[in-house]
Amino acid sequence: MKLTLRVWRQKNADADGAMSTYEVDGISRDMSFLEMLDTLNEDLILKGEDPVAFDHDCREGICGACSLVINGDAHGPERTTTCQLHMRSFQDGDTIGIEPWRASAFPVVKDLVVDRSAFDRIIQAGGYISAPTGAAPEAHAAPVPKPDADFAFEHAECIGCGACVAACPNGAAMLFTSAKVNHLNVLPQGAPERETRVLDMVAQMDDEGFGGCTLAGECATACPKGIPLFSITSMNKEWLRATRKVAKR
To answer: Which residues lie closer than 8 Å to 35 by C-beta, 6 or more apart?
Structure first.
């Protein structure tokens, strides 16, 4: 396959960025999208040019590091992570636009790499869970109803990739935050900090400068792990309950 790539190049957060055009040839349809970018970078290095900086780690669809907007879609045309997107999703001769996540809370570090530490601070704001120290407890020491366990596991699948923010027209982080809140709040281990967790995490999310949620639904559509939209409404109910409880004190 021969492709034309239009790639966002930006030296740092303070520099102006622009799209640069590159031609790549000999691309196998079985390559992953990141392997295709590796091929581009090999060509650029051989020419003495600066390779394109992009995030990647496990390349197995687990870590969520590979954050790219491809032809206007977070992670590309398939509902998966960029590392699991293969070139058979494109046609020979295609022109492909490649950009970083676009959100004020995700400043560009270089080229396609953005700083997503805002997500880390939201998780940190949730604090710890109350748990006895010492040896690991038996798996069945704390009985959990199956619907609650299924709900928690569904939200624990979030890998923090940021596709929800990139896809949202408002740049909101509600789907990510709700996944992290709901994961712990539904389990007995997270019950003691239930109110403070949702209040603190939502407050931190707002402080980070993410946009407001209008339930457009683009976040759930782009999520490679299928976190459902009702996760947001569940968190909103948790937040309202916690707000009312604090107000009565």
So the answer is: none
